[in-house]
Amino acid sequence: MIYSRMDNRTPELIRYRQFLPFAGVEAFTTTKNGWPVENPRFTGDSSDLYAENRRRLAQLLEIEPGQLVFPRQTHTDCVAVVEEPPAAELKDTDALVTNRRGICLCVQTADCVPLLMYDPEVGAVAAVHAGWRGTFSRIAAQTVATLVRTYGSNPAGLRIAIGPSIGPADYEVGDEVAALFRREFDFAEEILTQKPDGKFLLDLWEANRRQLLEQGVWAAHIEISRQCSFRETRKFHSARREGISTGRMVSGIMLRNGNFPTH
After folding, report:
1. pTM here?
2. Residue 142, SS3?
3. Burial letters for 209-220: b for 16+ Cβ neighbours within 10 Å, e otherwise?
4. For 113-134, how does the pLDDT look when each residue is reduced to its tens digit (9 = 90+)?
5. Whose CA is closest to 202, among 217, 232, 180, 221?
């Protein structure tokens, strides 16, 4: 990962090495730093909650706020195909895909896993929000399947980044969640670690990586940031650490306008 920032008043962006060879794609994750409010949000019932934050993000990306597409995330397994910026908010949606240039697909997180996907062969992108429920529902795998079904993507050609989120040493879950994962995944014992008190630690990074591998994505094409939102208090918001009302990071991906070589 690479950090970029103009000054202390400019929101800091993380860039991913997986996408750097491709001139026409913009992919990023924000941090806590540089926002005008302490706990920025990017969706909500009132535009007063997010309009200025979207404006600043768009300015940083050199696009218009209307080019940013944020779903209302509710830990579903719903993947939406975006043909144009929607007139109304996409409800109950946790993953977005498009092949249209100039549309920036965004998800917001504060411990959950953001995944950004790019297919340089067909020119398509995706943004995914995966907490434990989305991971259990295989939303990452479903997003890959949507890219294949909608645009003819070859999973082996996809480039994917798994962004900052709560790490495997800190994400504690109860017996009921551990039991669900054990029933659903053949690799459950590789992503669950039982603590001395009987509770479990769940590795969401590896759980999503394994789903991607099962879909045919190459291991070398998956970048995991390995930065923990719970531990890195100066960089990232964490709902577990700060409460559900904390701010959110934004992870976004866009095909820029213009005629760019794919690789």
Report:
1. 0.95
2. helix
3. bbbbebbebeee
4. 999 999 999 999 999 999 999 9
5. 180
